């Protein structure tokens, strides 16, 4: 995985710079997302791993599968990935690109794990509170984990707020053992 990120980083940074210069951050994000979906498809994965398939044929097949109207730069990017045998790391390129895009736009990802499903009003209030605390826009991903017993666990970057019953019980257990 770490090797894939190392391979993907220069492509993500170049793509980000190209998208930023062309004022097309959202468009590139959407195209990269489609490329990830196509590259992950089992039939395309077989073609990517086939050394006997010519780069030109694979490029055309990939571009046809990505579908939609691609700019000349986006087509060239796909061609470059095929020629350099980097279609296998397009997912990592997309993830790194999103990190750069979000940093530019002042957006941070928050992983919210709740013991129970959150209704829309509660989620909006929680996101508003997090945006106020972190002084940035928050993009929340919510998962439900009944093992938390109650409350929630929130991770924003490397900061974790554990307001779950399970977390409080674990902290109490450590305190009692000391």
Question: What tags apply to this protein structure?
Answer:
62% helix, Peroxidase, domain 1, Glutaredoxin, 178 residues, alpha+beta, 2 domains, single chain
Describe it.
With about 180 residues, the chain is α+β, with helices and mostly antiparallel strands. It folds into two domains: about 1-105, Peroxidase, domain 1 (Orthogonal Bundle), CATH 1.10.520.20; about 105-175, Glutaredoxin (3-Layer(aba) Sandwich), CATH 3.40.30. Helix content is about 60%, strand content about 15%. It is built from eight helices and four strands, in the order ααααααβαβββα. The protein has helices spanning about 1-20, 25-40, 40-50, 55-65, 70-85, 90-105, 120-135, 165-175, and strands at about 105-115, 135-145, 150-155, 160-165. A four-stranded mixed beta sheet has the order 2-1-3-4. Helix 7 links the parallel strand 1 (about 105-115) and strand 2. The longest helix has 20 residues, at about 1-20. The radius of gyration is 21 Å and the shape is elongated. It starts with a helix and ends with a helix. The mean pLDDT is about 90.
CA radius of gyration is 21 Å
Low-confidence stretches: none
Please describe the biggest sheet, giving its number of strands, its sense, and whether it closes into a barrel: 4 strands, mixed
CATH topology of the largest domain: Peroxidase, domain 1
CATH homologous superfamily annotation of the largest domain: N-terminal domain of the delta subunit of the F1F0-ATP synthase
Q: What is the global morphology?
A: elongated
Class from helix and strand fractions: alpha+beta
Order of helices and strands: HHHHHHEHEEEH
Query: Number of helix segments?
Result: 8
| Strand order in space, largest sheet | 2-1-3-4
Number of strand elements: 4
The assigned CATH architecture of the largest domain is: Orthogonal Bundle
**Overall residue-averaged pLDDT value:** 91
């Amino acid at each position: 995985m770490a090797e894939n990120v190392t391979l993907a980083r220069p492509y993500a940074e170049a793509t980000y710079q190209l998208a930023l210069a062309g004022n097309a951050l959202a468009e590139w994000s959407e195209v990269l997302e489609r490329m990830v979906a196509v590259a992950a498809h089992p039939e395309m994965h077989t073609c990517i791993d086939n050394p006997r398939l010519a780069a030109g044929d694979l490029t055309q097949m990939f571009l046809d599968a990505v579908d939609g109207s691609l700019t000349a730069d986006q087509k060239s990017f796909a061609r470059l990935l095929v020629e350099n045998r980097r279609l296998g790391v397009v997912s990592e390129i997309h993830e790194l690109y999103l990190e750069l895009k979000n940093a530019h736009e002042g957006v941070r990802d928050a992983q919210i794990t709740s013991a129970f499903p959150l209704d829309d009003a509660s989620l909006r209030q929680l996101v508003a509170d997090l945006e106020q605390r972190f002084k940035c826009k928050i993009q929340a991903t919510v998962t439900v984990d009944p093992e938390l017993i109650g409350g929630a666990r929130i991770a924003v970057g490397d900061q974790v707020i554990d307001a779950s019953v399970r977390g409080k019980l674990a902290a109490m257990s450590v305190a009692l053992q000391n």
